[in-house]
Write a structure and sequence with these properties.
two-stranded antiparallel sheet; 2 strands
């Protein structure tokens, strides 16, 4: 094979090329990469499978209606997780009420209404960094702000303080996912709306949000999934580990599924470890239910818009 080198004798003298196809070597590297990728998938699935088998083997025999509808007890055989299950559901509602409008609104404002400038870049970098901050830091912030500073409003170590702390924790996730969903909408839709004389808010409301809503909804469900499995932030603000009643208002003390599971695991008696395995199964079932709802809503909105 010959090529022309333009730097030699006017740029048109043919020279011998040093290009070597090395087809066999390239296909060998292709097979090595394929096996490495397959090994990564198999190892991940094996670890997950071992964990699931261990949890299901210990926890399934303990699951019963009595386990779901009774309060915790000092006797492992009589203990249930009613207060923790109800507390987790209440926390999810509080997180959704506060985090969804604030997070989606901030994402829309930063993506659609703020011009590309150094100020917008600084905010974007800081929000991305906040998504990686350890949850215990948010717990300390919630302890100082919602438990102590806002105690007349939240009631101290209450359900409302825990929900607001978790809302802070998931806000960066919602903002980033909202911005990514808005960026995925083609600019041609925005330009078409402006060409017809629509204002920016009209374009966002009528054309951009309906297209981006499935992505925004998916990000919201992922954020709630992180909130329901969070433990460190709730322990930091002082959530209780043993409650034999249900919270009747947002200012009442509370517990949650991860805290109840942590409490049972930390005890030396084997029956409490079995209870913790059953609690993990309930927590996973709740997560699967949330993800199923998210997939159903996303597919429905995608067909609609």
């Amino acid at each position: 094979m010959t090529v022309q080198n333009p730097q030699i004798s006017g740029g048109f003298s043919p020279v011998e090329s040093e290009f070597k196809p090395a087809t066999a070597q390239r296909y060998r590297w292709d097979r090595i990469f394929w096996f490495a990728s397959l090994a990564a998938v198999v190892i991940s699935l094996l670890v997950l499978l071992v964990l699931l088998i261990d949890v299901l083997t210990d926890g399934l025999p303990r699951l019963s209606w009595q386990f779901l509808t009774t309060f915790p007890s000092r006797r492992a055989e009589e203990a249930g997780l009613l207060s923790a299950l109800v507390g987790s559901i209440y926390l999810l509602f509080i997180v959704a009420i506060f985090a969804f409008p604030i997070g989606v609104g901030a994402g829309i404002f930063l993506e659609e209404f703020v011009a590309d400038s150094w100020f917008e870049n600084i905010i974007e970098v800081n929000i991305s960094n906040l998504a990686g901050v350890p949850s215990i830091i948010y717990g300390l912030l919630g302890l100082a702000m919602f438990v102590r500073l806002m105690e007349p409003i939240t009631g101290g170590r209450s359900l409302l303080a825990g929900g607001l702390t978790l809302a802070l924790l998931v806000l960066p996730v919602i903002i980033v996912s909202t911005r990514e969903a808005l960026r995925a909408v083609p600019d041609s839709l925005r330009l078409a709306g402006f060409a017809l004389g629509a204002t920016r808010w009209q374009v966002v409301r009528e054309q951009i949000l309906p297209q981006a809503f499935p992505g925004i909804l998916t990000g919201m469900i992922l954020a709630l999934s992180r909130a329901i499995g969070e433990t460190a932030a709730l322990i930091t603000i002082g959530a209780l580990t043993f409650i034999s009643f249900l919270p009747e208002s947002w200012r009442d003390p509370f517990t949650a599924l991860p805290i109840q599971i942590y409490n049972w695991v930390s005890r030396p008696q084997k029956p409490f470890h079995i209870n913790s395995a059953a609690g993990i199964i309930v927590l996973m079932a709740l997560l699967l239910l949330m993800n199923s709802v998210a997939i159903y809503l996303r597919n429905r909105f995608q067909r609609r818009f």
